[in-house]
Amino acid sequence: MTYGKKDREVFLGKDLLKEKNYSEMTAQAIDREVRKIVGTAYERAVTLIKKNESKLHKLASTLLEKEMLEGEEVNQILSIKTPAPKEAKA
Length: 90
Fold this sequence. Notes:
single chain; mainly alpha; 54% helix
């Protein structure tokens, strides 16, 4: 994602020394918003992992035993109920 004018493709580190066409206040506001978004996503990820830790351990140990699982097996381990297939209308 880019804010401001972009003349061409951005490669890692390429634009570090170029002049930016937005204020320092705008840059700080962008940084704060990005930190907020990333922080919220991180906290949500940690919460989900902690909530499902036993399922993740069970999935990992089953994968160590079998090395490969079918989707239905994963759903069963994670207690995911798959909807019944819809019947075709005649």
